[in-house]
TrEMBL record:
ATP binds at residues 87-97. Belongs to the GHMP kinase family. Homoserine kinase subfamily. This is Homoserine kinase. PANTHER family: HOMOSERINE KINASE, HOMOSERINE/4-DIPHOSPHOCYTIDYL-2-C-METHYL-D-ERYTHRITOL KINASE. The keyword Lyase does not apply. It is found in: Cytoplasm. NCBIfam families: thrB. Residues 202-262 form the GHMP kinase C-terminal domain.
Length: 303
């Protein structure tokens, strides 16, 4: 088998009330160059991956082994070079991109015994929720569930003109730490609020109802609990729409914050506002405008 490249995108999960069930992909990529050979080598490259293990403990390699376990076939030896543009532990799904890329690479090495749905199921079970891995695999916006019966999903093409602005602070927040602050139980009122807003948000995204996003993205399931971990988040959720955002949410478990914008307009005032909130809170970071990635994970021949 010749060498090949797997490219998996970053993702922004939850989008407010779609906790563990709704996400979209953005064009920042984790790339694996896989060269079948005599022995296994894991080679993390570039500054973002400094400190990640260069051996079989690497998260990408552990993801590859999941396919061997699922199929009962041993993983053929290969050199796996890993590069990523996704900032780690910022709420942009770096672990999901690494997981999906590893699973897709191993599946390819084994002659593709798993179809796309099975790849998603392996990834979602490992991650524990499907809202990052589904858009990382399929691109676009994905609504997904994971339960005892498996993983189910609907992929949506992004509405025309819908763009994303992300504020990526210069500090890490691990997903496990940001999950640990969530309550174990929710009131009936908060549950109904979340269900109705997540359903409205999915329908609004499906029909391109950009006018509904600001309202539909209201959430009391996770953002209120995580706000103390992300200085400035509450201000942005309350006020970003006054500066041109169509809606705002904590991206995944944070600390990145996502705003939607209309690509036909300018985001200059939104950028100035977001940078100002960061400065007011003594933080540094960057603001990026990104389209929504529609390709998901791609496999191509290596040069
Ligand atoms: N390309 C990669 N190679 C190896 N490990 C990775 C890679 N991307 C992410 N990881 C692992 O995932 C961790 C971040 O995962 P997580 O806390 O879920 O944050 P997020 O997925 O939001 O970036 C990193 O600290 C690292 O251990
Ligand atoms: N639904 C999860 C999403 C975590 O996303 P990540 O990009 O922070 O890994 C959660 O909110 O915990």
């Amino acid at each position: 088998m010749s060498a090949f490249v797997v490219r998996a995108p970053a993702s922004s999960a939850n989008l407010g009330p779609g906790f563990d069930s709704l996400g979209l992909s953005v064009p920042l990529y984790t790339t694996l160059t896989v060269t079948p050979g005599e022995r296994t080598e894991v080679v993390p490259l570039g500054p973002e991956l400094e400190g990640t293990p260069a051996n079989e403990d690497n998260y990408v390699y552990r993801a590859m082994l999941l396919v061997a376990q699922r199929t009962g076939q041993p993983l053929p030896p290969a050199r796996v070079e890993i590069h990523t543009e996704v900032p780690l532990a910022r709420g942009l799904g770096s672990s999901a991109a690494a997981l999906v890329a590893g699973i897709v690479a191993a599946n390819r090495l084994l002659g593709s015994p798993l179809d796309d749905h099975a790849v998603l199921d392996v990834a979602a079970r490992e991650e524990g929720h499907p809202d990052n891995v589904a858009p990382a695999l399929f691109g676009g916006i994905v609504v997904a569930t994971l339960d005892k019966l498996g993983t189910h999903y609907v992929r949506l093409d992004p509405p025309e003109h819908l763009g994303v602005t992300v504020l990526v602070p210069d500090f890490e927040l691990s997903t496990s730490k940001a999950r640990a602050v969530l309550p174990r139980e929710y009131s009936r009122a908060d549950t109904i609020h979340a269900l109705s807003h997540a359903a409205l948000l999915a329908a609004a995204l499906a029909q391109g109802r950009l006018d509904l996003l600001q309202h539909a993205m209201q959430d009391y399931i996770h953002q209120v609990w995580r706000a103390p971990l992300v200085p400035g988040l509450s201000d942005i959720l309350d006020d970003a729409h006054k500066h041109g955002a169509l809606g705002a949410a904590l991206s995944g478990a944070g600390p990145t914050v996502l705003c939607f914008h209309d690509q036909r307009g300018t985001t200059a005032s939104l950028h100035a506002y977001l940078l100002g909130v960061m400065k007011k809170n003594g933080l540094t970071g960057r603001v990026l405008d990104l389209p929504i990635d529609t390709q998901g994970t791609l496999v191509t021949p290596a040069d």
